[in-house]
Amino acid sequence: MFKYMFFRNYGTLYDKKRVKFDKQILKMKTLFSAFVSTVFMVFSLSDIPAQQLSATEIIRKADEKFNGEKSNMMVMSMTIVRPSWKRTVEFKNWSLGRDYALTLITAPSKDAGQTFLKRASEMWNWNPSISRLIKLPPSMMSQGWMGSDYTNDDILKESSVVNDYTHEITGEEIIDGRECYRIGMNSKADAAVVWGYQIRWIDKKEFLVLKAELYDEDGILVRSETGSEIKVMDGRTIQTKIELLPADEPGNKTIISIREIKFNIPLEESFFSQQNMKNIR
Amino acid sequence: MRKVPEIYLILFFLINVEAFSQEEVKRFDLNGYVSTMESVIFDSLSGPFIVDNLLHNRINFKGYLNRNITFATELRNRLFVGDMVRTGPSYSEMTGMDPGWVDMSWNILNEQSFFLNTTIDRLWVDFNYDKFQARVGRQRINWGQTLVWNPNDIFNVYSFFEFDYIERPGSDAVRLQYYPDYSSAIELAVKADYDNRITAAALYRFNKWGYDFQLLSGYFNSEDFIAGAGWSGAFGSVSFRGEMSWFQPVGNLADSSGTGIFTIGFDKAFRNNSMVQIQIMYSNNPADYTSFLSFYTGSLSTKELAFSKFTPFGLYSCPVTPLLNISASGMWFPDLEGYFAGLSLDFSMAENVDFSLFWQHFRSEINNTESNINLGFLRLKYSF
Fold first, then answer.
1. For A80, A112, A228, A260, which has the most beta carbons within 10 A of its beta carbon?
2. CA–CA dist A245, B33 (Å, integer)
3. Does the beta carbon of A120 lie under 8 angstroms from any beta carbon of chain B?
4. Domain extents for chain A?
5. How many angstroms separate the CA atoms of B277 and B329, rounded?
6. DSSP string of B5-64, one letter each residue
């Protein structure tokens, strides 16, 4: 029973009838998908000034930034806000490419010290209070990490935002005092993606996604995202606070806060080991 | 104290003197919990109730001397009050009994109606260098692969029913580990218990075809040779885990007096985060049922995990709301003509406060005598 403590406690913080994103991100694999989603949003930036870029080029540049990064380390928290309660999980994450990730839970205290290791399609959990290494069921992995619509379509499928959509600059707007391109993205007919239509507001200077609206195939707004608290971390300008708001559930949101981030740190494959799961801190 | 625990004095000394003497980003971790648990035991609703309360505090401390050396001390303080305490001194004596080589369990206060016990169940120093790791002292060596019964977990025995002590007692042991690659390990461990009985074993764990496999062999409780194997993997989306151990008395290597325990289990998590788990255990030589207590808390020996030749188990756990999880489980003991049925409810009241309700029902028929035992628990737990 105890083996799934973490998943039970964090995996189930979301209602079943929640919109797609919420359903998945709050499950146990939350950590990884939230992490990757953060990476995705964080890397939607560039230090190249936007000259006369086409909408597709803007999206591509942001995407290449994301795909081009080899490794990173992040300290972050995720808060689930509901009308009558909220819960926060904090963690450190190290990752290398798409295949290797190591996550250490640092809060809440009852789960602190637990680690998760992902290597390609395998995943393990280390629980220090019972000194037990558990190979996680593939059903857990596939539903949240590899198999969920969110992760596959929005995150893990390389260049999905570039290749599966047509892009158009539909305007320019000022968000939080920053000039942004407003880019409309229509999914291509043959693309197997969740979102029929997206609007992204991308900062002209830094290529930060400051706002996004995600619509289903019927054109109904499902979720919006905002990026704020722009700071320089490890020499890069990034948004350190990302809020995800399901459209049909007022009062509900998920807040991701980045406390620390390091890019392209020297990490070897051997870092992502069962031995290191037990020693990382 | 049965012996002068020099090694522990040394560990204490090191912790006190050195743990804070060097620059490290993070030099220590301190956490734990406080819980209060009300329990009731009864045969039937119309019969007498045995009501007790347990105030329980656990403190976990880890000190990081540097990259390579870590210390840990973990202890639990428990204040027992209630009907069980008043039945006589045997309850407090049993609670204060330390199965380890060094006695680190003390009944600090022991009166007619209450007693306070303090137990140190972890006290180790860990040396970690490159692919080597050595840990000396009281520690948990957990070699389990399956989720309910663990015949490979020869250094500690886990009783499924003891939900309030997931950490379990530590072993006074020396453990050496070498990690040839990311998912394999070679381990050597030796422990001594309160009776100076030795358990010494080696384990090799590796990853192949998407499975974790392990093989182990050694000397168990100064009486048996043991050989075992275990695995964790999957059939499609369903986890498939198993363990087997064979205990052969040292003096009777050739005959059929050995005890084998075999178990396999499956588990699957569903999209809504509910989970199903089943496991079955077989033993050619199940332990004798001597008392409910030994059955409930589990014996000190892995060899006595089974009370029935076959024991099937099932569990279903489901998040009813994001903050409320309910699970139901059952176990069947054909040889005792008995079963266990359990229900648990966990509610997250606040960020670090959990409320839990547990109900355990046992029924058996031994020597034509039917017995029913119900245990109910209400627990409020604050983690820090």
1. A80
2. 34
3. no
4. 2-279
5. 9
6. -HHHHHHHHHHHHHTTSS--S--EEEEEEEEEEEEEEESSTTS--EEEEEEEEEEEEEEE
Task: For residue A36, give the H/E element and its range.
Answer: helix A30-42
Span B16-58, pLDDT tens digits:
444 444 434 678 999 999 999 999 999 999 999 999 999 999 9
Q: DSSP E strands: which ranges in chain A?
A: 71-82, 85-96, 100-107, 115-119, 122-127, 132-135, 165-175, 178-187, 197-203, 209-215, 221-233, 236-246, 253-263
Using alpha carbons, list the distances in angstroms from residue A57 to A37, A95, B14, B247, B353.
Answer: 21, 27, 60, 67, 49
What percentage of residues in chain A have a pLDDT greater than 90?
Answer: 24
Q: Hunting for tokens 């998407």 — which residue is that?
A: B210
Q: Which of residues A53 and B137 earns the better pLDDT score? A: B137
Searching chain A, which residue's CA lies closest to the CA of residue B158?
A: A130
Per-residue pLDDT tens digits for B136-162: 999 999 999 999 999 999 998 778 898
Q: Is CATH 2.102.10.10 the right assignment for the domain spanning A2-279?
A: no
- Of B38, B39, B113, B121, the closest CA to residue B77 belongs to B121
Hey, are the CB atoms on A7 and B319 less than 8 Å from each other?
no
Q: Is the CB of A131 less than 8 angstroms away from the CB of B141?
A: yes
Residue A201's nearest CA partner among A231, A177, A222, A220 is A177
Cβ–Cβ contact B152 with A under 8 A: no
CA distance B293 to B328: 22
For chain B, the distance separating the N- and C-terminal CA atoms, rounded to the nearest angstrom, is 31
A129 touches chain B (CB under 8 A): yes
Per-residue pLDDT, averaged over B345-373, amounts to 92
